Amino acid sequence: MRHTTHILFGTLFAIPIVSYLSLDPAKASFIIFTALIGSLLPDVDHPKSYINRKSWGIFYRVVLQSTHRGWTHSLFGAFIFTLISTLVFFYLCWDMLYSMVFLFGYLSHLLADSLNPTGVNWLWPKKKKYKIAIIKTGSKGEVIFQAFLVILLALMLTELPK
Questions:
Q1: Which pick of 14, 100, 122, 126 has the fewest CB atoms within 10 Å?
Q2: What are the DSSP calls for 64-89, one per residue?
Q3: How far does Cα 79 stand from its chain's mean position?
Q4: How far apart are CA 157 and CA 1, in angstroms?
């Protein structure tokens, strides 16, 4: 999937949390931003991914030691990156809610990529990839899926507490 699809899907997972907790706008914005980072992070294993192009080479070592949709696209990767984010949030004395939202964003990426014919190796290091194979990256199907996500997000945003 393209990064825009992952951003929309990650936001879809963050909005209910923001709505349920009735967060102030500043904290709500940062919660959504945290989910977006989580939703983009699994693609650090691809040298031309959006997150790698925007991160000034921070993830260069991950690219060198990984194949696309390898360990970063697994529950193991979700655990490792969520653990790192939790340690950072703890060090900064931030609410641990951010770690949970980061994890939801990360898992949203894996779920979205599971809709792709390539699938996701959820149980890495096992070799089996899980997929539903209904949306090819960059296809009309992905554009339709993005439109569906935008409509769903618009509906959800109208229901947020004022």
A1: 126
A2: HT--TTSGGGSHHHHHHHHHHHHHHH
A3: 13
A4: 24
Q: Could you tell me the two tokens for 140?
A: 């009309």
Global confidence as pTM:
0.88
DSSP 120: B
Spell out the residues 6+ positions from residue 28 whose beta carbon is closer than 8 angstroms to its own.
18
- Within 41-162, residue ranges assigned H as helices are 50-54, 60-64, 75-91, 97-114, 140-158
From first to last of the 162 residues of the chain, give the pLDDT tens digit.
899 999 999 999 899 888 888 788 888 889 999 999 999 999 887 777 777 667 666 665 565 566 667 788 999 999 999 999 999 999 988 888 999 999 999 999 999 999 999 889 999 989 899 999 899 998 999 999 999 999 999 998 887 666
**Residue 5's closest CA among 149, 154, 151?**
149
Backbone angles phi, psi at 130, to 5 degrees: -105, 135
